[in-house]
Amino acid sequence: MQLFKNFCETKVDENGVLKDFKLNVPISYNFGYDVVDEMARLAPNDIALEYTNPSDEHKTFTFSDIGRLSNKAANALKKHGVNKGDKVLVVLKRNYEYWYIVPALHKLGAVVIPATNMLTVDDITYRIKTADIKFAICTPDGTTAEDMVKAKEVKPRLEKIFVARNNLEGTINITEEIEKADEHFEKVLTLANEPMLIYFTSGTTGYPKAVMHDHTYTLSHIITAKYWQNVNENGLHLTVAETGWGKASWGKIYGQWLCGCGVMVYDFDNFSPHKLLKIIEKYKVTSFCAPPTVYRYFIKRDMSKYDLSALEHITTAGEALNPEVFEQVYKQTGLKLMEGFGQTESVLMLGNLVGSVSKTGSLGKPTPLYDTMIVDECGNELPTNEVGEIVVNPKEKQYGIFMGYCGDEELYKNVWRNGVYHTGDTAYKDEDGYYWYVGRIDDLIKTRGFRVGPFEIENVLMEHPAVMECAVVGVPDKARGQAIKATVHLADGYVASKSLEKEIKDFVNKNVASYKHIQYLQFVDEMPKTISGKIKRTDIRKIDRDKIC
Q1: How many helices (H) and strands (E) does the chain have?
Q2: Average pLDDT, the chain
Q3: Comparing C-alpha atoms, which of 354, 362, 314 is closest to residue 335?
Q4: What per-residue confidence (pLDDT) applies to 549?
Q5: Is pLDDT above 90 for 15?
Q6: Cβ count within 10 A of residue 274
Q7: Distance between CA atoms of 450 and 426, rounded to whole angstroms?
């Protein structure tokens, strides 16, 4: 059953490419009732969730199961004081409880705040203070529950801590409470424009921002799932992201269930490309989404050695896609990687949508949900092939864009300056309307009077077989203003040396314009990254400022 048809009007061209999209949002809307419960009523035996882990534990949940368990969870949480409007921190990794506890919180009208189990006690207390969090629900794995108890001692605003499958002093075993609870829940009225979800950004340039979305956010992911990820009714979609990150909302619950597609969950701690490929093979995953880094590791394993015959569509987002990765994935699978672009603050803004002709390395075109433009520093729209910032000119009802930064109204006003939403990302648009990523505004390198995007140099670096990961930044230089420096994490089998450094620099410099030449190259054992896995260019720049004059 594809419920998305109840909430939108669509038009596609002769090739099946989405050309127009209009959401029909009722005044009162709630994903828990209007999607989960409806799917439980209309398609009770359809698979909502396939779960497994490295220990080969396996569980299957139908929509009927999710509807019933979410009601029981809502009753259990309500019994302990969770009510409409309460902020609830949810740290459940890829544990299967996430898929019925989150709908339960939606049904209660509580505000869900997903977070990663990688947070420290200080990270947790910062979130409690910033978002005024009253409750937390934790994984039984690792030290998350213990850290939450320590955070509660510092921030007693946190009233209660629930832990799945665990009896820890100072916490409540939510699994036992759910088992005892009634499976019939009295509906709580929620309006479509009320707060539903807060994600903290990964904080690449400062403290993480608390990005708040209303209930329409779930419906806005129809485009993400149906027209970009190409999920099918009764299919099985796998997005790699852990539930603490915004990408989980893109690929692990909302749009997929609206389209009647099951979600595949592999609950791992240590990433193994071989094991993940075996999961895709074993469970016959039909659509898959992961950041380019995952595909880079897949390429090294050779995807052609696995039976991926059930896999029909693959997508990527979260970081820039190098053409070399695109070409190798296509060579090994016969599938074209369809790149997309969006933010924690939005749903899919740009994408190579289903049925479209993708261009290798392109972000694609604006989705019909947004009026997207490239502008200069003064807000003027730029002509083709000129680099500027990606902005969104709001429509009458701009669904999918966040409703505010919790606790920082000034920052929210700043990103909405001059009447448009400023993404902070730069790109250019070609003659066919495709967008090409350049980098974050802060990442642009100004050298010898030229503006250079790091991504174009990184693309060439990634073509060298010795390069596993890389980052290009500008470093202070008296003659040039900024010199170009590459930081490189080598692939397995390669050893750092002066000769390899020269080889890689010569390889790149022969393939780029002279003003883009790499002046410095450094090998590192590990790239500095945020807890979400993004390379921290700010850290690299700081190290470089200290070392290079």
Answers
A1: 17, 28
A2: 93
A3: 314
A4: 40
A5: no
A6: 12
A7: 15
467 forms bridges with which residues in the sheet? 490
Helix axes 292-301, 323-333, angle to 10 degrees: 50
| Beta strand pairing call for 236-239 and 210-214 | unpaired
Q: Which amino acid is at 440?
A: R
For residues 119 and 130, give the distance between their C-alpha atoms in angstroms, rounded to a whole number: 15
Band of pLDDT at residue 547, cut at 50, 70 and 90: low
CB 89 within 8 A of CB 128: yes
**Residue type present at position 147:** D
Distance of CA 101 to the CA centre of its chain: 20
DSSP assignment, residue 106? H
Tokens of 176: 């036992």
Radius of gyration of the chain, Cα coordinates, nearest whole angstrom: 23
Comparing CA positions, the residue from 139, 235, 199, 530 lying closest to residue 343 is 199
Residue 241: CB atoms within 10 Å: 21
Closest CA to 32 of 247, 223, 215: 215
The Cα–Cα gap between 61 and 518 comes to 52
Closest to 454 (Cα-Cα) out of 508, 401, 525, 407: 508
Among residues 279, 139, 217, 207, which one has the least CA distance to residue 404? 217
CA end-to-end span of the chain: 62
User: d(Cα 100, Cα 68) in Å, to the nearest integer?
Assistant: 9
